[in-house]
Amino acid sequence: MRVRACLAAALLAPVVALAGCREGGVTPRPAVSGGDAERGRRMVAAYGCGGCHAVPDVPGAVGRVGPSLHALAARSYLAGTIRNDPETLVRWIQDPQALRPGTAMPDLNVGPRDARDIAAFLYTDHAGGLGPPHLLPKRWLGAH
Predict the structure, then answer these.
(1) Average pLDDT, stretch 60-76?
(2) Residues in a beta bridge with 83
């Protein structure tokens, strides 16, 4: 019985230790509540986001004015200083000037549902993102 307890503890210790590991202090992000990623992909095209941004999996979205939206889910910040979390991304898509006055990103009058769907899409693998950040450092995971 004692050997089993020791073996169980030995096997469980690394799991418990790794549960608290996060690369660079980034916490896992939940999915965008109420967002429809496939509809969001279509909305990225409909609003013309690809005129300024390169967006994987959106035909013709090859813009170079703004940053590429590839792997947006893996980034800690939007526009350099705004925390990248689902609700903030939705707000940024709807009204970028409210979060960063003077930003080059225009207000495209994106409604709440469309903004939520676009954010859901940008957090998916379809947009070249990684989904929510991994709990293990990327160098431990190898190629995706």
Answers:
(1) 91
(2) 77
Q: How confident is the model at residue 99 (pLDDT cuts 50, 70, 90)?
A: very high
As given in the structure block, the two tokens for residue 93 are 């898509």
With H, G, I as helix, E, B as strand and everything else as coil, classify residue 64. Answer: coil
| pLDDT tens column, 104-122 | 999 999 999 999 999 999 9
Radius of gyration of the CA atoms of the chain, in A: 19
Distance CA 27, CA 32 (A): 15
Provide long-range contacts, Cβ within 8 A and 24+ apart, for 51-54. Answer: 52/105
Q: Nearest-CA neighbor of 35 among 129, 95, 119, 133?
A: 119
3-state SS, one letter per residue, for 72-91: HHHCCEECCCEECCHHHHHH
